[in-house]
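Entry type: protein chain
Record version: 2
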Amino acid sequence: MFDPAAEARRWWTQALDDRVFVHYLARERCFFDKGCFIAQQAGEKALRACLYAEGRREVLGHALVEFVRDLSQRESAFAAITNHTARLDRYYILARYPNGLPGGTPFETYTAQDLSAAVEDMDAVFAVVERFLGARGCQRKSV
């Protein structure tokens, strides 16, 4: 039997672990491209947790901005992170593949400033998600 709260906690727990890794990379000032991508992934997993908490059995896609549009229809707090998710979505492809850029490679192109911005956007998403999941009893303590 499908348990929305349990599924939400699974996704949230993984998102929290990804977040710890992104913060580590930012602190160590390394692997900026990978950190930006994982920041997007952490945001994606966190928002998926919210959709599962609402009872979704399947969540398709990878666009954070689409997840936020959907969630904003029922919870206005999500509208405040639309710009954060739009910026994080830029890292889904561009930070991973050389052909996503006009020249160079992601590891040569992304900087500490890019990762710092990605961390800020990711943390903004997490703040809203944490309140949302906490209100539904789906929150797990931070990793």
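Comment: The CA atoms of residues 23 and 107 lie 18 Å apart.
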